[in-house]
Amino acid sequence: MTVALETVRSTLRSIVAEQLCISPDEASDHDSLSERYQMDSLDQAEIIIAIECDLAIELDLDLSFDTVSQLIEAVEAVA
Q: What angle do CA 59, 16, 56 make, to 5 degrees?
């Protein structure tokens, strides 16, 4: 795993944690965010917007994700 990927993963966990009011350590890569933390479509949109601001990238607001791993894949696809 490269340093950049680990930095992205850490940033994404922090963004997800802040939006869902959990600890970054609780945001594991493969947990279902909607099932475990009741993430809804508004949370998803706000997470996407925060990622765009923090990482200076553009993601599709219609991006569908349910895990941190899916977010990492989406960021890697546009980076």
A: 35
Report which of 49, 55, 40 is spatially closest to residue 10, judged by C-alpha positions. 55
User: What distance in Å separates the CA atoms of residue 67 and residue 29, rounded to the nearest whole number?
Assistant: 6
Q: What is the pTM of this model?
A: 0.89
19: tokens are 């939006």
Q: Tens digits of per-residue pLDDT, 36-71?
A: 999 999 999 999 999 999 999 999 888 999 999 999
Mapping DSSP onto H, E and C, the string for 7-69 reads HHHHHHHHHHHHHHCCCHHHCCCCCCHHHHHCCCHHHHHHHHHHHHHHHCCCCCCCCCCCCHH
